[in-house]
Design goal:
330 residues, two-stranded parallel ribbon, 13 helices, 4 strands, globular
Length: 330
């Protein structure tokens, strides 16, 4: 950052600008996260983190691509944004360090579960290659010596050693998952964090479990301020994408432009809502409009229900008003 400060000082001197002249910058959201934004802000630079998918590109089949051209494009769009064209691209909302840190627990838990599933599937695949199909792997460590191949012979020694090592990975990952779940339960019962209080508030509703409530709050509700229901649906990527050209009008499906974890959980909760809140206004609306349709129609309708339910949950957290007809847990 010292080199950057030197470059800025030299640039202001070259163009005869006062030392207090404002400096604007931008970069595309990605692997670098938000540390660079915070470092630039600490230097007094007005920085923007932009969604790379919202940047205009040439629609020709083949187009020139280089770092120099990319920088020129970003500079052009930054100038347009600075002169008042707010819709020239989408600016990413930067979370504070505490807000960003709240995401670590459930993301680590999700990653660890995926890692365990990957290792478990690898064990099943290695066994399937020998004609072995076990109903469960719950006691695989003790049952491994008795496993036989398709013709009744013992497993090859190298494969047996590999399976033992893979099973040790499963046990280690299971221990990590239990530790993370225990940490989350402890926070749920003891933390005074406003975000955790929102989790408790969501858990009061039937059809909302700990996994969904925690993800909803930490990924969505706790660090964003929504002005209206359109913003809620838009951030989750659940809003429709119309296509209209001349006499042609059709829907292209949802935008899928938001947080994919929240979007997937919204669909899952919508199905659970139909089961556990059948007398709610949203469930009655869904059943009246989509309940008698084909499976495809019901799947389309569940996306609309997920969007409406997400808005209702936002209102519930903001105002405390329970969704119409919904039942609280006893």
């Amino acid at each position: 950052m010292a080199a950057l400060a030197t470059e800025l000082t030299q640039a202001k001197r070259r163009f005869a600008l006062p030392a207090e002249a404002p400096v604007l910058s931008c970069y595309e959201a990605g692997r670098d996260g938000f540390w660079l934004h915070r470092a630039l802000a600490a230097q007094g630079i007005a920085n923007l983190v932009v969604d790379s998918s919202s940047i205009e590109v040439n629609r020709r089949r083949r187009r020139a691509k280089s770092d120099r051209l990319d920088v020129r494009k970003l500079l052009t769009m930054l100038l347009r944004y600075a002169t008042g064209e707010r819709r020239v691209w989408h600016v990413v909302h930067v979370p504070t360090p505490p807000e960003e840190d709240r995401r670590q627990l459930h993301r680590e838990l999700l990653t660890t579960k995926r890692d365990r599933a990957r290792v478990t599937n690898r064990i099943k695949g290695l066994l399937a290659g020998q004609g072995v199909c076990l109903a469960t792997l719950a006691r695989f460590g003790t049952e491994l010596p008795a496993v036989r191949t398709w013709d009744g012979t013992p497993l090859p020694p190298a494969l047996t050693r590999r399976l033992e090592r893979e099973w040790q990975k499963v046990r280690h990952l299971t221990t990590q998952i239990r530790a993370l779940q225990a940490e989350r339960r402890a926070l749920l019962h003891t933390s005074a964090d406003p975000a955790v209080r929102q989790v408790r508030q969501l858990l009061a509703l039937r059809a909302i479990g700990l996994e969904s409530a925690w993800l909803y709050v930490m990924e969505f509700f706790s660090w964003r301020q929504f002005a209206n229901r359109r913003e809620v649906g838009g951030l989750a990527g659940l809003t429709p994408t119309p296509y209209q050209s001349g006499d042609l009008q059709r829907e292209q499906g949802i935008t899928q432009a938001g947080n994919r974890l929240v979007r997937a959980m919204a669909i899952e909760i919508a199905w659970a809502w139909l089961r556990w809140q059948p007398e709610s206004a949203l469930a009655r609306w869904y059943n009246a409009r989509f309940g008698h349709g084909s499976s495809r129609v019901r799947r389309i309708g569940i996306v609309a229900l997920a969007r409406k339910l997400l808005v209702e949950l936002w209102r519930y957290l903001e105002t405390g008003v329970v969704p119409e007809g919904a039942v609280l847990k006893a």
